[in-house]
Amino acid sequence: MQSCSSAPSSLNYYLLHSTDSVPLTQNSVQRTLVLDKITLPEYLKHKGLVYQTSDTSLHISTAHLWAEPMDEGLSKVLSSALADKQILLQRGDQLSDEEATHITLHIDDFISTYKGDVVFSGQYTVSSVQKGTSIHSFKFKAPIENDGFSSSIQAMRNTIAQLAQHLSQTF
């Protein structure tokens, strides 16, 4: 009788944000933006990294996992990208200033695709006492330079930087 044995697969954990980013100091802040909420599609609420394998199919990895929830990683990368533009991003539960400019972010897609790029799309709502409320749609793409999840994550960071640029011009 022959038995089947398989070695346990190793798990790989990934951070969306970079640990090298430098936080903004209060002295360098020109504007403050309060992030009230991020809404994600169901497929991004899993721990596994997601890859679009065809026009209609997704693969959610069981061996390549996010080290933190997607919304946390996304807000950290967005915060860092906005800091480069002297914009301080604070969470809504940290600052309840009614006079501040507030944003909610609704993500439709944030995925590495079989076409060799990352697609990041959705809408954001900006509201402030001074300017009222405005809704903005976005769709950004970034090429994946090499094979592997690390390259995909770098491309994801690039699309978030594109969103930060768009945001900095909006409010």
What does this structure look like?
The chain is α/β, with parallel strands linked by helices. It has helices at 70-83, 149-170, and strands spanning 12-14, 31-39, 48-52, 58-66, 87-91, 101-113, 117-128, 132-143. Strands 1, 2, 3, 4, 5, 6, 7 and 8 form an 8-stranded mixed β-sheet that branches. A hairpin with a 5-residue loop joins β3 and β4 (58-66). The mean pLDDT is 90.
Shape: globular
Order of H and E elements? EEEEHEEEEH
- Distinct helical segment count: 2
The helical percent reads 10-25%
Strand content: 35-45%
- Largest beta sheet, briefly? 8 strands, mixed
Tally the beta strands.
8
Notable traits:
171 residues; alpha/beta; eight-stranded mixed sheet
What's this model, at a glance?
By secondary structure, the protein is an alpha/beta fold. It has 2 helices and 8 strands, in the order ββββαββββα.
